[in-house]
Amino acid sequence: MAKTELEVSAIANGTVIDHIPADVTFKIVQVLDLYNHPGAITVGTNLASKTLGKKGIIKIADRFLTDEEIGRLSVVAPNVTLNIIKDYQIIEKKYVQYPKLIVGVVKCSNPKCITNHQPVATKMELFDEKLKSLRCVYCERVMQQNEIELL
Amino acid sequence: MPRKNSIFGALIQIVTMQNNFISVSDLSKEDILSLLKDAAKFEANPNQRLLEGKVVATLFFEPSTRTRLSFETAANRLGARVIGFSDPNATSTSKGETLKDTIKMVSNYADVIVMRHYLEGAARYASEVTDVPIINAGDGANQHPSQTMLDLYSIWKTQGTLENIDITMVGDLKYGRTVHSLVQALSFFHPKFHFIAPDLLRMPLGYRDFCVRHNLEYDEQERFDEEAINRTDILYMTRIQRERFSDLREYEQVKNVYCLHKAMLDNAKPNLRVLHPLPRVNEIAYDVDESEKAYYFQQAQNGLYTREAIICRMLNIQL
Ligand SMILES: [Zn+2]
After folding, report:
1. Are A114 and B120 an interchain contact pair (Cβ–Cβ within 8 Å)?
2. B230-277: per-residue pLDDT in tens?
3. Burial (0-12, 13-18, 19+ Cβ within 10 Å), B117
4. How far is the CA of B6 from the centre of ligand 1 (A)?
5. Are A114 and B14 an interchain contact pair (Cβ–Cβ within 8 Å)?
6. Residue A111 phi/psi, 5° resolution?
7. In this structure, are strands B81-85 and A149-150 parallel, antiparallel, or unpaired?
8. What are the start-end ranges of the H helices in A59-113?
9. A101-150 has which CATH code?
10. Residue B168 half-sphere exposure, CB side, CA atoms within 13 Å?
11. What range does the domain containing B266 cover?
């Protein structure tokens, strides 16, 4: 099924984000600011998936994600797969991994944190690999996955 | 300390080869023990002019007379000169100068900066914008690592070791940053914790979780009585602040329950010592002061020796 679908809306060049947990598909659209992308975008969600139950997939023509964008992506959807397409061929598959250090993407949930008061970029380190919780390098507040808010 | 393997596990190395004293979570077991040994040398001889010609800045963006006097006395007894401010209203900070700019400016003058700030993470950030060593003298409710060192020194000195100590923490365990840091720092030394607090002020989940991750034995109870006192080596009392309670009647009840009287120490172990970060309100009755088990005034004095040790360590001065 994945095969036919890929052909239906195949892209010549760009990025396919696959294996997205269905509930964060639209969050990714937001995080990557795809609203302002001039090229073609296909968003599918609630698609059948053997491993995830329901998954999402996003195909973005003529766009290759920067490391910073991959970092942002990984915060909302760790474990997605990135297919880099050139000339209708997958030339590279990237398995997004949760970064050990996230700079300037996640807001610190502590209202008394310096990053919420002075021009300081936030810096979060992975606190618990399994729970995907983060710890602010500055104020040391630990944020659970469901508390994580993007800047 | 240069950032290295912390007790939170593998932290990311953030490029700092310089010395900083920001957080208990940066300290290794070896760091702690070697600082305690240095502090003992300063207790034996507090006046050592090791910092002749050096300038220590004390920047108190939030007033704290007790901590500032302790650091400034430490600097003076080491022969350093002290510059700084104790009232941020007197500086351009009140005109909206950023912390970065203040730190950059002071870095031109000082060999080491001791800073206290009401914002959490301020000291870590300051350490990123300067090459001058930063000593955190308190950043909001987050860290106050020199307080932890003097607590550790007091335990080490009165018990002869940090290993296998039975420690009972009483009072406000929710907001009390000293007890949180102490839990972190003692994690290297096989402690046994008893957390005694009203439900409203119990040890936060994050720190109970920390105990579980580090295989630290702990139990919790609300009742504070002789039974709890008689089994323990260190009784660490903390202040319960009225502001924490929305219901003042509840505060009135609680404040009388978590209060130590001299008679309660009658059957305590001979080695038991009572610690308190000070200032106290009424959680330790004045009659306890006469007990040989009361140690909180010496504990505060130990702050001088541990701070002398910390300042020298930041400047790579060997004792
Ligand atoms: Zn923070």
Report:
1. yes
2. 999 999 999 998 888 888 888 888 888 999 999 999 999 999 999 999
3. buried
4. 18
5. no
6. -65, -20
7. unpaired
8. 67-76
9. 2.30.30.20
10. 24
11. 145-300
Q: Is residue A133 a contact partner of residue A141, using CB atoms and an 8 Å limit?
A: no
Task: Search chain A and give the residue with CA nearest B125.
Answer: A138
Total-model pTM: 0.86
Coil/strand/helix, residue B28: coil
Going from the Cα of A143 to the center of ligand 1, the distance in angstroms, rounded, reads 10
Domain boundaries, chain A: 14-95, 101-150
Q: Which residues pair with B168 in a beta bridge?
A: B194, B235
Record the tokens describing residue B70, joined without a space. Answer: 């302790």
pLDDT for B289 beyond 80: yes
Q: Is B289 part of a structural domain of the chain? A: yes
A100, A119, A139 ranked by CB distance to B142: nearest:
A139
pLDDT reported for residue B153 = 98
Q: On the CB side of B269, how many CA atoms lie within 13 Å of its CA?
A: 17
Note the CATH number of domain A14-95: 3.30.70.140
Structure tokens at A70: 């991959």
Reported as a single tens digit per residue, the pLDDT across B17-49 is: 469 999 999 999 999 999 999 999 999 999 999
DSSP state, B8?
A: T
Best CA proximity match to B196, nearest among B169, B225, B235: B169
Q: Which residue ranges in chain A fall short of pLDDT 70?
A: 1-9
Q: Which residues of A touch B98 (CB under 8 A)?
A: 118-119
Sign of CA dihedral B38, B41, B47, B53: negative
